[in-house]
Amino acid sequence: MSSSEVTEVFFGVTKLFQSSDASLRRMIYFFIKEVAETCNPDDIIIVTSSLTKDMNSKEDLFRANSIRVLAKMIDATMLGAIERYIKQAIVDRNAMVSSSALVAGTHLIRGSPDVVRRWVNEVQEALHSSSDMVQFHALSLLYEIKQHDRLAISKLVTKLTRGTISSPLATCLLIRYITTIVRDSGGNALASATGRAAYQFLELSLRHRSEAVIYEAAKALCNLPGIEERDLGPAVAVLQLFLSSPKSTLRLAAMRALSSVAIAKPSAVIKCNDDMESLIADNNRSIATFAITTLLKTGSESSVDRLMKQISSFMNEIADEFKIVVVTAIRELCLKYPLKHRVLVGFLANFLREEGGFEFKKAIVDAIIALMCVISETKESSLFHLCEFIEDCEFTALSTQILHLVGIVGPTTVAPARYIRFVYNRVILENAAVRAAAITTLAKFAARLPALQASVSVLLRRSLRDEDDEVRDRATVALRLLGENITKDAPGDGEAEGSQRPFRQDALAADSTRDLPLQPEIHLLLEPLPMSFAQLSAALKEFEVAGSREDDALALSLTTLPVVDYTRPSSQSAVPASASLSSSNDSAELYKIPELATLGRVHSSTSPIQLTESETEYVVSCIKHIMSEHVVLEFAITNTISDQLLVDACQNCSVRGKM
What we know:
By secondary structure, the chain is mainly α. The protein has helices at about 5-15, 20-35, 40-55, 60-75, 75-90, 95-110, 115, 120-125, 130-145, 150-160, 170-185, 195-205, 210-220, 235-245, 250-265, 275-280, 285-300, 305-315, 320-335, 340-350, 360-375, 380-390, 395-410, 415-430, 430-450, 450-460, 470-480, 525, 535-545, 575-590, 595; strands spanning about 600-605, 610, 620-625, 630-640. Strand 2 and strand 3 (about 620-625) form a beta hairpin. It starts with a helix and ends in a 20-residue tail after the last strand.
């Protein structure tokens, strides 16, 4: 609807104020509140007189709803006209009217805080109301009024903890405020008098008649900073009772709280293990997931096998998001009990072959790789599991990640030759991205293992006629770095793609003892680039600007490229273009000087350092160029007086301290 149509409907609805039907009037209030922001503000003001009239009505329903609507419509300039009515409504005997006025104050304090702060006496009086909802809204508004006065908040909380609040909702809100105050105080929660008083109140709240208050108090005790394990006993005991509750909401809330406690203090939750094991078969999958992950954090080494059997049937019934949580917990358990790595890694490997989405499979792969880095005994078995996974992996990103890992770890294993079969099968059966990664992995095997170099070179030659240029280029570069002559014995027509077949390990026996000369640049395969691609691009541009490609002393290589500190441009901090250009060209200017060009690669250049005051007759600045074995100081002298000319300028440098 357009604005004009909304305005037309709005004025039509306002005519219904003449009706005394309660349901119809409630619909009118709801409609006005919803369209108040869409209509013209001048049109909205017209209806305020009808709403103000309803504020003084004898019908409590009309009074309560009109206050709510007016709080949504009016601004600071109009608040003064109805402030008296709202203050009277706050202390009204009708709970609905009083609660509506308090909620209106909560909305109005954001735009007119000074006006609402004058209602503090009425709000404090409403705090002693017999209505649970009025107490809750009164405490919320009172906290909003005093939240910037820390001393006033502390006094308010201390006063209320003495038993002046009977509303369960208000008590839950008070517990949250107490937790906030204790957390903001920092340090050990029980070290100060305020912290000890808070702990006593929270412990007393564990015996409240309301289950919501009991849970809120238990959760607050578990989250108190610096609390000792022995002080968690009452809260854990209450949460343990909730685990056997017939209400699923209580079971879920208790499991969530116990799961967070188990992260920092697993021994405090061990006594709940029997109750949590019974929840593994709970119909609510969220409860079962929390139970399993908590048991994995608190379980002993002897219970790992039993837990894995229980989890196996459970994993097929939950969604991938819950499976990822379980995988993370299993990884932490394996780090806790490294002797159980065979059982846990085998469990993860089994689910790699099951159905699942990308995020779930990636979580398992990352977990296995993390365990390989920490527990050296898992390297051989984990790498073999990953190689079996890529035999039937539908995710390109995971296949390339695993192939990269195989290229790094595979040559260091006891029997590296058995992994080449898995890698070469990817060259034949996968897409271009995976084939390219497999070519690089094969090249790493050949570079690290001279005994396999000749056989792997034969496999690489078969990719010189691949349909993808990336695969062909990688195979060509690999063979060059391995010292092969790619024009000799090139694969003929009879060795096209159709004649390729999966690699067999016994093929490695042929010519396995012939060593080929490796090129000096072989480290490009075995080591990561010393710079990012963005830095490499910037360094090449500087190299071209210096015109050093024609200089035989500075041939293009990684050792002669200048290092450029590349940072992504940020939208919050803009750098002037002139400053960025000058900083990037400082090191490139050195290559134009023959005497300095032979000193080697510039690793970094500092920004100009001013050596004199800017008001002197001449200004001197210095730029430091850091090289592998040299430091070049570039001085710039600028004359600031136009009628004088500087001649025969020279500089003297002295060294302080020991070099």
